[in-house]
Specification:
With 201 residues, the chain is α+β, with helices and mostly antiparallel strands. The protein is built from 2 helices and 8 strands, in the order αβββββββαβ.
Length: 201
């Protein structure tokens, strides 16, 4: 037999087999009954993705969690509180913080920029390498403690900012202008609140 005949006959034989297998024999399939239907596809369970923990900030200026201790104020040693933070967003480029008194038109008690984009702390106000403190509302660099009028209570808000860029003090010396730069570049914030009541004169 000529070799090419074998090559040509193979597809013809397969076609015949296929057509024969698909031929109609006169029987009709009945539709499935309701109790006979079943999916052949296994349902896929999607594992829930755990949401990241929110950014956190803590400050040790209060022994009871709400009232600022005397030693951090103008009535005491004007001591700088310790601040620590954690759970920064993955895209954080830099960290900054501010402390303001909303009851005194946003008087700035503390402003710090250039903190590294990792969880950390500032024990006793010691700045990490690269960080810089700005001018506060009293015209001095660094911390100035709560000092409301005698007999009054003021509230204080410490805000930690996770920034989208390395801006330091945002091109300013400190104060409200620097805080506005922090807000403009913030991708996340965390806040700690406390109050201080000054004794009547």
């Amino acid at each position: 037999m000529h070799p090419r005949a074998t090559v040509i006959c193979v597809p013809v034989l397969l076609t015949a087999l296929v057509l024969g297998g698909c031929s109609h024999d006169g029987r009709t399939l009945r539709p499935a009954q309701p109790n006979q239907t079943q999916s052949i596809v296994d349902p896929t369970t999607v594992a829930a993705t755990k949401a990241p923990e929110p950014m956190q900030v803590t400050v040790n200026w209060s022994s009871d969690g709400t009232t600022i201790d005397n030693r951090y104020t103008c009535d005491g040693a004007n001591q700088v509180p310790e601040v620590s933070w954690s759970n920064l967003p993955a895209s954080t480029a830099e960290v900054a913080l501010s402390v303001v008194d909303p009851d005194a038109n946003g008087f700035v008690h503390w402003v710090v920029g250039g903190l590294p984009a990792v969880g950390g702390s500032m024990p006793g106000g010691a700045l990490p390498q690269g960080a810089v403190a700005g001018t506060n509302g009293a015209g001095k660099i660094g911390w100035t403690g709560p000092c409301p009028p005698a007999g009054s209570t003021h509230h204080y808000q410490l805000t930690l900012y996770a920034l989208d860029d390395e801006i330091g003090l945002g091109g300013h010396d400190g104060g409200a202008a620097t805080i506005e730069e922090f807000r403009a570049h913030a991708i996340a914030t965390a806040v700690a609140n406390a109050s201080y009541t000054r004794a009547a004169g």
